[in-house]
Amino acid sequence: ATVVRLLQFENHWYSRHTRLLSTGPVSIDEVCLMHCVFLFIGQAYKTTLFRNVQQMAYSLIEYRSQIVSGTLPKDDLVELKKKVTAKIDYGNRILGLDLVVRDEAGNMLDPDQTSTVNLFRAHETASRSVDDRIQEEKVELLCRYYSTPRTLSLSPTVHTYSLLMNLKNFVCNIGEDAELLMSLYDPDQSEFISENFLVRWDSMGMPKEIEKLNNLPALFTDLSSSVLMRPRLFLVCQIIRVGSMELKEGKKSTGGLRRPFGVAVMDVTDVAHGKTDDEDKQHFIPFHVAFAASGSSDLFACLLAGLFVTLKLLPGDLAQVRKDYPHFVDRSTAIVRKMGFPEIILPGIVRNDFYITLVQGEFDRGKKKTPKNVEVILSVHDDNGTVFPGAGYDGISEYKSVIYYQVKQPCWNETVKVCLHLICSQCCPIRFSRGFLRARSRDKSEKPFGMAFVNLMRADGTTLKDGRHELIVYKVDGKKSEDAKVYLGLPATWSDVEERERQTGKQFHHTGAIPVTKDSFQITTLTCSTKLTQNVDLLGLLNWRSNPEDLEQNLQRLMEVEGAEIVKFLQDTLDALFNIMMETSEKDTYDTLVFNALVFIITLIGDIKFQHFNPVLETYISKHFSATLGPKMCVVFFLLLRINVLFPADCRDVLLPLVTDQLSGQLDDYSCKPDYEACVQLLSTVLDHLDRKDVVRVWKNSVTGKLKHPGHYLACMTAILKQMDDMHYAHYFNTFKTRLDIIDFLMETFHMFMDLMGNVFPADWMVMNLVQMQVFLRAIIQYSDVLNKFFLEPAHFNKPLWDNYFLLTVAFITHKTLQLETFSQEKRTKILNKYADMRKIMGFKIKEMWNNLGQNKIIFIPAMVGPILEVTLVPEPELRKDTIPIFFDMMQCEHNFSPGRTFEKNELITKLDQEVEGGRGDEQYKVLLEKTLLEYCRRHRYLSQSGEELALLLSSLLENLLAYRTITHDESPEHRMSCTVNLLLTRYLYKLRDLHLDCENYTEAAFTLLLHAELLEWSDKPCAPHLIPRDGQHQWTQQELKERLFQEIICYLDKGKMWEKAIELGKQLAKMHESHMFDFVELSRLLKQQAQFYENIMHSMRPQPEYFAVGYYGLGFPSFLRNKMFIYRGKEYEWLEEFSGRLLSQFPSAVRMTSTAPPGTTSLNCADIQCFTVKPSLSVPHQFKDKGVPEQILNYYRANEVDQFQYSRAFQKGEKDKENEFATMWIERTTYITAYRFPGILKWFEVKSVSVEELSPLENAIETMESTNEKVSNLVQKQACDPSLSINPLSMMLNGIVDAAVMGGWPTMRRLAFFNDTFIQQHPEDHERLEVLKQLIALQMPLLADGIHIHGEKATEQLKPLHNRLVTCFHELREKVERQYGVVTLVRCQMQTQFNPKEVGGVTFTDVITGWKKVTLKPNLTKLYFENKITGPPPTSTAFNLVC
């Protein structure tokens, strides 16, 4: 019961931590994991994911306990099993496991006992179910993450929704009857979406249907997801007062008038989007009082007025909602339809609604001073028509509009629905009704003053077009205006007037049987009918019996009808087409037209815009298809899609030839308009019911590239091939008349197989993929026999056919489905038990077919090297052992055909590089490849030497490639560079360049490209393929590519401030342009560029990099670093601590050594890093020796073009002198020589040799004085050349030498006691070294004198006291030195530079820049310097330049 915090798990051991026990390992057997709690620190959102997994596990445990209890009824047990399997399948998909296919009872399907087509359909069904579940989970998780409660998500599989609204109460004391009209409204589009839900309220504030008090439900149906996902959606309630014109009027006034009273609006966007879904929550919608046109209020404002409603979004259409939510929707619920069609119109649904909206009007007030109070009365003058002012009440014969008080241009925007009842008979199949509008003024007389009408059906049989119509207002003139025979002959709208005038050429007379008024009146109409259409062409097809002579034209014009209009009348259209086909069966006149029309409709529904109508077509085929079976292809086409009782033996012989004949015609390459999707559905049904003994013809068309869903075809083809045995294959190949026909078939089949072995089936359809591969294996073996039988002899040998065969077999072996090593042990065992390792079978067949080639093998070299290499790299030992010898066989073929030919070798190296980089190959392959090739080659008389060399070369290359691949994902670019540099192939040079550019190592990037450039010549020869850059598609000549590389290299060198090297390459380019290319324009640019580089050398700041020695000791490092020492070139301004920190960050477990001495014996798994600073040894170019060279030029060579480095360590030798420790202080100097010079293709190189020497105290003193003099000289030069430099460094150096007696100055050397008689007598061999030390001390004086002189000129007033102190100390020091060691005079040379001389005490400091030409010393010392005969170590070259 101890609480254990699990820190880590590895190799069956936990790393644990408890409150009572210290951290340490504990065996897994000692821990009972009763309850794991994961803490996501900083990742709280993952807690939800964990809770979901936890809940799923708990659910499965609970389900299992119920199943094993044995107490569940059979039906409940089946349902519970379905739940369990659904959760398991969902979890498998989340975990990336294979999809498990099951039958209806939840049991796993056995592929041996299930037809291939059914197996495919089961995969489709299972995959779709899991996808839907995952999509729902994603939406729910997203909502939870954003803290959005949601119980209903808009699923892509649900096309229609319904909104349930329940009006609980309406609080407002109006005092008269009222009507509440509630509808959905889109404020952005300014349009109403639904009809009105009508509720009548009495004057006592109660609903007129008192039994519905506090419960007035309405269901807004046919709402598609596109409607609900609009940016904003409002619920609008219009309140209409029904009574007198004004409330203050008494009972004697006219009643029953509909007057606007107010409006209430609620934003229901969140409900529509599914963000809120609480059916018990009552929403209060405040009420806003309307105002009359005069500006006075109709009623006092009531602050508490408003509505109380509840809302709930339900998935499904009306029928589905009534089925799934009977407790919400019953007979008392008002059904509010959408003003328009739903997203899916199922067959059998009949709707014939016309929505008429009274928009606005303008009425002449006549002789009155005030406008009329206008009321519009709408009535339907047909026994079959009814007006519905709103859902919830029965229809009425006439509808009265709202009255606006004395408004000349009233705007109503009132919508009513006119419902028409269709009467069908043999002579009149469809009959339409007509409606008209009548208006009157609500004054005391209340007589109608105008009338307008509109015909809902046009003369051509179509309905009135949707949209706005401006009606003609006729004057009411007695009985004539009531006689339909009179006014129906008149135009109804002004557009009708224009049409009549255009047809007759006569102008319309406003004074006819019924006069026309000056008034105007506008309406809009919207037709929602599944029986009446507004399209003439579609109507002509539906009524084809009335005009059979136009049938051909109507069938052709059907293709031009808009898709949206066709899907509205899908059932009627399909019925009409099949009736045409059946009733005109004696003639073939319309067969093609009808078939094309059917294909057009099916294709239309397959379009993404109408794909949600697929269920409509499925329903029609299964429930409403009424045609009888006949010999027509279309009948067979549709029937076989859904017939599940196929076929009795007596009719199979009749049906199969018909089906195969039609399929062959559709799938033929020359078919003008094939319908592949329909064909595959038909073929699937046939195959699913065929017995395994029947011979089915294999079609040979590779149509996968043309299909939208090739998986259907692959399943059908697999089913066919699975049912074929050896006899079927033999029979089929005997049907070919010539070898050319067999070649065509095999070539198409090979290409098709390779296409189908791609990604047709998803990766988790493991069973389907394995069945496919098993069937393909058997087919390929059959085709192998055909190749051996017909195409092996030289006379009939066909290389392209064999090429495609080998490529197919290689693709089969390397298919991801068959790579058993990537699967778990349990899954691997199951596959091997059921299917065996199909790779080995195919690999043995490849070797057999290769051996059968005989003398034809040579034509497959080197093309087959790559494919065979892919096979040998498959990690299956037996397969490798069987196929690797093919390489030796290729070598033999090359040797026998052309000794010395190396195509196979070059191709093998190139392909091996590509394959290993792609992730193939391992250490076992390297060992087996080397062992096998050596074994075969050493037994061969002529290939023993060359074969052994190739085997070792491949082994070495493979080792480097594997190391490179291992380190590719290493975060350290240095490690990747180290492995890349071992692979000196052109494409790896560019990989190395890119790594350098990522790290801004421009100098190293330049030297890397220089390796490629050095492989090229200045000639017009074309570049060999291996010399072309990886990204280069252009066919370069060697000269073009080399020039391009030089320009890129110079650019990188400029960025790296390596101007000396850039000038060197620029000179080569300039020479070529001057002497060979004669491109003087480019030559001019190059010379200007070189001039700029020279300027940069003399004036630009260029910090010298530090160099560091690094040693890696112990097995904790990679093999390319282990127990080796390297010299690293640091970055600009990078010091030791920064560099070592960067180094240790690459190896967090490594420990930095504190000693610079070589390490002793290290432990097995240690990782020790040794890191310290080293100094490069200057090597002055020969052209600069014995010449005065500016420091700016020499500074480059102090840190560049070096491969020798030194590290000095002081130590005491002998008995320490307490009075002067320098007398016994020796120097141990270690010299490191690297494999390559710096800079180079890397920022580090391995140390190849190390030497150690010891320097005596006197030699150490000489070096110290030389170093001090050099520093003084360099600083003086800089101060003389650049007056803007700060004087502080010069002040510190002078003060340290002449005053403080530090930094190696003369007083320190004097204390070394090298010049006393005792030292001289004991060390006679150091006499010349003592003289050199004396002269170096004497040489320091004129250098200090120049420095003090410059210091005096540049010193400010604040520094004058310091300068005076320095002058005093220097005079004392110089007097002592000249007295003991003599005077050194510097003889100046003539000015040799472009700088303006600056005279300082008679000495031009320009001479300091160019160097001293001569030093007047004692005669013997002068001779020693100039003849360089000093024994022992001479002064450094820099010091030599300073004094020579």
UniProtKB/TrEMBL annotation:
Q: Which residues form the C2 DOCK-type domain?
A: 351-528
One GO MF term attached to the UniProt entry? small GTPase binding
Keywords from the named record: Cytoplasm, Guanine-nucleotide releasing factor, Phosphoprotein
Matching entries from InterPro entries are given as: C2_DOCK-type_domain, C2_domain_sf, DOCK, DOCK_C_lobe_A, DOCK_C_lobe_C, DOCK_N, DOCK_N_sub1, DOCKER_dom
Identify its protein family: Belongs to the DOCK family.
Q: Where is it found, in Gene Ontology cellular component terms?
A: cytoplasm; plasma membrane
Any Pfam family matching the protein: DOCK-C2
The segment(s) forming the DOCKER domain are 976-1386
Cellular location of this protein? Answer: Cytoplasm
Q: Which organism is it from?
A: Neogobius melanostomus (round goby)
List the GO biological process terms: cell migration; myoblast fusion; small GTPase-mediated signal transduction
UniProt KW Membrane keyword: no
Entry protein name = Dedicator of cytokinesis 5
Chief subcellular location: cytoplasm
